[in-house]
Design brief:
By secondary structure, this protein is an alpha/beta fold. It folds into two domains: about 50 residues, Spermidine synthase, tetramerisation domain (Spermidine Synthase, Chain: A, domain 2); about 220 residues, Vaccinia Virus protein VP39 (Rossmann fold, 3-Layer(aba) Sandwich), CATH 3.40.50.150. The chain is built from nine helices and twelve strands. Helix 1 crosses helix 2 and helix 6 crosses helix 7.
Length: about 290
């Protein structure tokens, strides 16, 4: 008998993968957690029925949520990651030669432990890397208690439901502003421009009111809803579109490179338009 997993990405759209084996199912204090082995994408982390990462395509998301910001800032010595319990963002941050310390704050310790056990390729930096610090805490509270400490902050959240809702609020972006140094910047994942237009617009406008520079950029991630994913960058000083190859340390990547860095900010016309003030393009999956 064949076993298939389906994530219902909208009420009308789903992604379905043939399953080899179910490796873990458990209910944490915050969410339903599952790790499954799929034929197409290898091991897959699923939270509350939504795909978070897979062995096959994780490098796209993790390189793009980290390296764009790290290479925009000339001296990203202190880096904070909010969320990111699978460890992929932390893995990329500690590889960066200019980073001296990376702190990851994840609310759900069971996600961290499951990732260490079943996703070793992604979670490797959580196993005692000398640059890495892993804290099991509420990220919103942590940010509010640390002022003027970080060069770069990365918000590697789940979708805006459950424990992640507060990570998409204007108050949280203001708190991040205060936790950054005077020339700091932050990056957050901000969902699909096909399915989450209202969320992207709201976040972009909220960040624009707080940060002197706000930019949206895109990446192609096969297992995420629609396959096209957005990230929002808020910066106090540095413009991500003005980097040159000299800004980018030379170490191996699979998706990111300096040319792609600049190209990621060249947006399709419909994405440009949804960022315009007052424009109301209703997405089909808002709040999911």
């Amino acid at each position: 008998m064949e076993l298939w997993y389906t994530e219902k990405q909208t009420p009308n759209v789903g992604i379905t993968c043939k399953v080899k084996e179910t490796l873990l199912i458990e209910q944490t204090p915050y969410q339903h957690l599952a790790i499954i082995e799929t034929e197409q994408f290898g091991r897959m982390l699923v939270l509350d029925g939504m795909v978070q990462t897979t062995i096959v395509d994780e490098f796209v998301y993790h390189e793009m949520i980290t390296l764009v910001g790290l290479n925009t800032h000339p001296h990203p010595r202190r880096v904070l990651i909010i969320g990111g319990g699978d460890g992929g963002a932390l893995r990329e941050v500690v590889r960066h030669p200019r980073v001296e310390k990376a702190t990851m704050v994840e609310i759900d310790g069971q996600v961290v432990e499951a990732s260490k056990r079943f996703l070793p390729e992604i979670s490797s930096a959580m196993k005692g890397h000398p640059k890495a610090e892993v804290l099991i805490e509420d990220g919103i509270h942590y940010v509010s208690q640390h002022k003027n400490e970080f060069d770069v902050i990365i918000v590697d959240s789940t979708e805006p439901v459950g424990p992640a809702i507060g990570l998409f609020s204007a108050d949280f972006y203001q708190s991040i502003f205060q936790a950054l140094k005077e020339d700091g910047l932050f990056v957050a994942q901000t969902e699909s421009p096909f399915f989450n237009t209202d969320l992207i617009r709201r976040v972009f406008q909220d960040v624009s009111r707080i940060y002197p520079l706000t930019k949206l950029y895109l990446a192609s991630i096969p297992t995420y809803p629609s396959g096209l994913w957005s990230f929002t960058l808020g910066s106090k000083k540095y413009d991500p579109e003005k980097i040159t190859a000299e800004h980018c340390p030379d170490f191996p990547t699979r998706y990111y490179n300096p040319t792609l860095h600049r190209a990621a900010f060249r947006l399709p016309q419909f994405v440009e338009e949804l960022l315009l003030p007052g424009n109301r393009l209703s997405g089909r999956n808002e709040g999911v």
